[in-house]
Amino acid sequence: MISTHYRISSPHILIGAALLCWIALCTPSVRAADADVEKQLAEKGVKFASVKGVITSANIPDCSTWTDADFMNLAQLAHLKSLDFASGLTDKGAALLAGLPELDTIQTNKAQITDTGVKAFAGYKSLRVLKFFHPNKSFTGAGLADLASLPTLQSLTVAGSDSFGDAGMAAVGKLQQLREFRTWHAGQTPSGMAKLRELTNLRSLNLGQALRYKAPAAVSDETIAILLEMKSLESIQLSEARLKLSALLELKHLPNLKTLTLDGIDLPEADVETLKREMPKVQVKWTKPTESYARRIKALFG
After folding, report:
1. What pTM was computed for the model?
2. Quick one: pLDDT at residue 26?
């Protein structure tokens, strides 16, 4: 016989049952609210993806004409993990979305973010991957230093703007938490590239050539000397440059290097074979310069 005492002294069962009932009652209403937001923003061209009925990512083609209400609607989708802005994200828009608790990845293109506005991204407490493609001229990258307090940030990309130069690289050097950094077609000089030495936890590095057609080159043999000091590197990609075999061979002294990608590097094929032979523990990948790469290489290196 079940005792009365047992039925009265089982609060955990009652609490658990109450919680299940609350979840059952609330989940449909949450999904209904999400569906309403999805419908409104889909009319503005936003494309959503869901997992088990929960919206987890959004692709926004152009938010330059969005109102605050539009951003606040998007911010209601509390389980968003990924946002891709094709154009138009502003400082204010970024700030209005900073409360999204699960947001993991943000990709922007032609963002109207300023150095001051970058600070808003420090409010994305789960942010792991941040990408800026073709940011506007008001973005030098100096504001990236404000993200040093964001421990989750592991991967940063800045590409396609000559305004991102040495000041931006100095800010990137303060992001000790980074495991991956990618930049190309920007405005750094060798002095800016030297700031990479400060990234002592970096595992993966992708460096492309400066956007300009005159010296100094951002990627050169001088860059190799900097990389030799970054003992944590496991993967290196270098693009759009003329490099000497003797400089590249020095990379075999990096203790953790596993992959070396030479994308559009002006280097004789015989030297590539020597590189592969002398670095048997490293996967070496090489492609010839394209016509557009060759023009920039000639302008920079003669």
Report:
1. 0.88
2. 46
The one-letter amino acid code at 231 reads K
> What is the spatial distance between Cα 93 and Cα 87, in angstroms, rounded to a whole number?
12
Distances (CA, A) of 289 to 99, 138, 152: 44, 31, 36
Instruction: Report d(CA 179, CA 302) in Å as an integer.
Output: 35
Distance, in Å, from the CA atom of 53 to the CA atom of 31, rounded to the nearest integer, reads: 8
Reduced to 3 states, what is the DSSP secondary structure of residue 244? coil
Three-class DSSP labels, 256-281: CCCEEEEEEEECCHHHHHHHHHHCCC
Q: Give the per-residue SS3 of 107-132.
A: EEECCECCCCHHHHHHHCCCCCEEEE
Bond preceding residue 135 cis, omega within 30 of 0 = no
d(C-alpha 173, C-alpha 171), whole Å: 5
Residues 6 or more apart from 85 whose CB is under 8 A from it? 60, 63, 106, 107, 108, 109, 111
Least Cα distance to 196 among 216, 215, 176 occurs for 176
**Segments of the chain with pLDDT less than 70:** 1-33
Q: What is the pLDDT of residue 31?
A: 56
